[in-house]
């Protein structure tokens, strides 16, 4: 579809280096890695918000009706 070759990837890398600088690249990579891990964890947990609250299950029992959303 896009057909990115080696030349295109090198041009993109040079542009990223110019815009962000060499010092920011590790921070950007770390943030991207955390975002991907959070997304994968949220998808595998089945929770829509991906919250990491301990003791809180994303599945509810059948005998308790779900709480209605609160208006802000």
Give your account of this protein's structure:
- This protein is an all-alpha fold and 72 residues long.
- It has helices spanning 6-20, 25-45.
- The chain is elongated.
- The termini are far apart.
- The model has no long low-confidence stretch (mean pLDDT 78).
List the helices and strands and how they pair.
Layout: H1 6-20, H2 25-45
Shape estimate: elongated
Structural class: mainly alpha
State the end-to-end CA separation: 44 Å
Integer-rounded radius of gyration: 20 Å
Largest sheet: none
Average residue-wise pLDDT: 78
Instruction: Give, in order, the helices and strands.
Output: HH
What's the total helix number?
2
**Tally of DSSP β-strands:** 0
Strand content: under 5%
Detail the poorly predicted runs: none
User: How helix-rich are the residues, as a percent range?
Assistant: 40-55%
Give me a quick take on this structure.
The protein is mostly helical and 72 residues long. It has helices at residues 6-20, 25-45.
